Amino acid sequence: MIKFSKQQLKIPQMSKPVYLVTGGMSKFDRAIPEKRTEELVIDAFLEAAEFIKKSPEELKEYIHSCYYGHFADHFGDQLLGEAVIHDRLGLDPLGNVGIKTGGATGGSTIWEAYKAVASGYSDTALAMGWERMDEVPTDEGNHYIASAADKDWETPLGHIYTGYYAVMAQKYWQVFGKEEESFRRTLAEIAVKNKGYARMNPHAQSPMNITVEDVLNSPTVAHPLRALDCCLMSVGASCVILADEKTAYEMTDNPLLLYTSAGSHTLRVADRRDMDIPLLPNESPDQYKDLGLRFPGGDRYPGFTGFLAARMAAYYAYGMAGIVDPTEDLDLVELHDAFTISDIQTYEDIGIRPYGEGRTYVESGDCYHTNPFTGQPGKLPANLSGGLIGCMHAVGATGIMQVIEVAQHIWGRWSEMHADEAKWKRFNREKPDDWTDLQVKGAKRGMAISHAGVGSHVTATVLVHPDHQLKGRG
Amino acid sequence: MSTQNRGTVKVENGRYRVSGNFHYAFPNDPIRDENGKLLGITNPADMTHIHAYGGEAPFFENLSNAKLLGTKCANPKCETYGSVYIPYRIHCPDCLMRNEEVDLTDLARKGASVHTFMITERTGAFNTLEKPIRFVNVEFEGVSTILMGYLSVGEPSIGMKVVPIFQTKNPTFTIMDLSWVPAGTSADELPEGFSL
Question: 3-state class of A81 per DSSP?
Fold first, then answer.
């Protein structure tokens, strides 16, 4: 599909508004030998119940249907793992379904629960995601992940997904990064930022106090990407509860409006045909006419440098929530930083910056909690959780964790959920002496991007405080 | 336990006829912590899947004949009529009519270049390629798509002219039978079993 029909570009119109009521997550780590997946899922559910001062029984009474995000059955060697979880949560005989869209599984799980509530099927729905990536050693894990590429045309080539992804990084690095040392350092800054923010998050797997030099000196994975540019492999679970307006206000005083959309593009990057750039509300039709002149080799769209799925998810979500300019209209984002370079590509796909100029989001200091150049609050802080590089990538749980993190800022409860000494102790982690409160003051709106692999599936979830809705929403 | 007599498959009268072993059972081992506490078990498994290439079979068959096959939309009513695809697409992604097969070997020999590439030391389990792997994504003039492969000779760069080579001796009938080398590479520089 190169051109889009009017029907395909329709901004989704939901039958009723949907609210985020609560969310919770487990500890995340590379391996958690002492716990079964069911135990991690229950940890997440208990945190969600406690967050709105309900017992698990009270919370379960509201749930009418369940959406379970778990990507890699073969890691756990258990088909229908969703049925196991559903039983252990004591939610039988409610309807439930498993959702899997690679790295976007968490976001897609919310998308399904969202539609269930918006349609009136359920007043309240559970979206729960998890992943267990410690059941095979890393080599076998790489093979399993590579099975998410095309089994005949890609997987036999090295059985290494990073390789299929990194060719995109190489193209972006050469065309838009112009192989500049300054660009390489900007990439490293993203890792420094996200590993650093992870230090303030008791759930996070890989908190690190590092420098740009540390990133540049870490082992090469695939030039120009180094080990510290790459996301984690993780174990853990997270969940959210969505409800219609009436039920949401019965459960809590402070639910948030939620909008979720989705886009897709070919599993094989090979199959991506040249097309015009679909525009977001803050872009003009002639804006990209000279893109190939400014960045030789950058005129093929999306080619190997853009994620059409992310652009389409943003297009729908912005229409639904009334967002014109994400940098102006949002107060924070959680992005899918699978690699530092794909983080920059995403800034462009979702319109935080125009194509070719993603790096300036970092270089301006806009992406920080506190702009390092001005000492003022960052214009649009990104990945205060630590993201996939610092916090975790327990695939089915990732997109849900991101939404919870954004919500806690809008609720003004980020500090409460991250400062708690008891939680640090329970997770057997040491709270740093210089722990810093990253609450985004006055946050009203935020967004989370959940993204699969080379961009086969992407979802955008926008959260809005009901008192601060935007005009022009769909 | 040995893994002798590994399974093979034939098709007769449209049905799979299998012989030999398709799985091997191995005993479990306990996983304990340093204090001897039981935490879990290993679950060894060795299985062979039976996989149909279906309409893509001609592509994989012909690599061993040193031919690179693609497909083309042959539906004049289709908006993208005439678009050429490799990877070999059985159906046009727009009109969903069955594509026509086209031999792209000559085009690849004359007009292929590296769109992007990646060199990596890291691989997953079951990898058989020599490390580091030099992934190349190859573009062809007049073709809508960009094929992924690996370079067997030299160092890749964007825009570099490359030509296909084929494992014609002891072919695997997988995508591994196709590789790429810089234009001008001589036959004696090719890996064992490959020809230009």
Answer: helix
Q: What is the 3-state secondary structure (H, E, C) of A103-127?
A: ECHHHHHHHHHHHHHHCCCCCEEEE
Per-residue pLDDT of A241-275, as tens digits, reads 999 999 999 999 999 999 999 999 999 999 999 99
B89: burial class by Cβ within 10 Å (0-12, 13-18, 19+)?
buried
Give phi and psi for A235, each to the nearest 5: -120, 135
Pairing of strands A445-451, A332-334: parallel
Q: How far is CA A232 from CA A41, A182, B65, in A?
A: 20, 25, 43
Element (DSSP H or E) covering residue A262 = strand A256-264
Q: How many other β-carbons are positioned within 10 Å of the β-carbon of residue A320?
A: 20
Out of A1, A34, A154, whose CB is closest to B148?
A: A154
Residues of chain B in contact with residue A168, where contact means CB-CB under 8 angstroms, are 116
**Domains of chain B from N-terminus onward:** 54-195 (2.40.50.140)
Residue B98 is classified by DSSP as B
B148 and A1 within 8 Å at the Cβ level: the answer is no
Question: Counting every residue, how long is chain A?
Answer: 474
Distance CA B42, CA B30 (A): 6
Find residues 62-81 of chain B whose CB sits inside 8 Å of chain A: 79-80
Ramachandran category for residue A263: left, alpha or beta (phi over 0 → left; psi -120 to 50 → alpha): beta
* CB-CB contact of A226 with A398 (8 Å): no
Rounded CA gap, A431 and A416, in Å?
A: 14
DSSP A129-171: EEEE--SS-HHHHHHHHHTTS-TTTTTTTTT-HHHHHHHHHHH
Within 8 A of A169 by CB-CB distance, chain B residues are 118
B137, β-bridge pairs? B116, B148
Q: What residue type is assigned to position B151 of the chain?
A: L
Q: C-alpha angle with apex B33: B29 to B37, nearest 5 degrees?
A: 80
- B86's CB contacts (< 8 A; 6+ apart) are B68, B69, B70, B71, B104, B140, B143, B145, B147
Predicted confidence (pLDDT) per residue in A435-473, tens digit: 999 999 999 999 999 999 899 999 999 999 999 999 877
Q: Is the peptide bond before A56 cis (omega within 30 degrees of 0)?
A: no
| pLDDT per residue as tens, chain B (196 positions) | 577 899 999 999 989 999 999 999 899 999 999 999 999 999 988 889 999 999 999 999 999 999 999 999 999 999 999 999 999 999 999 999 999 999 999 999 998 999 999 998 889 999 999 999 999 999 999 999 999 999 999 999 999 999 999 999 999 999 999 999 999 999 999 999 999 9
- The token pair at A258 is 């939620």
Residues 5-34 of B with CB under 8 A from A: 31, 33
Task: Indicate the helix (H) or strand (E) that contains A80.
Answer: none
User: What beta strand segments (E) does A297-385 contain?
Assistant: 332-334
SS3 state at B27: coil
Residue A195's nearest CA partner among A169, A214, A180 is: A214
Taking the Cβ of residue B140 and every Cβ of chain A, the question of whether any pair is shorter than 8 Å is answered with: no
The token duo for B59 is: 């592509």
Residues 6+ apart with CB under 8 A from A305: A168, A171, A172, A175, A176, A298, A345
Q: Which residue in chain A has the smallest CA separation from B57?
A: A152
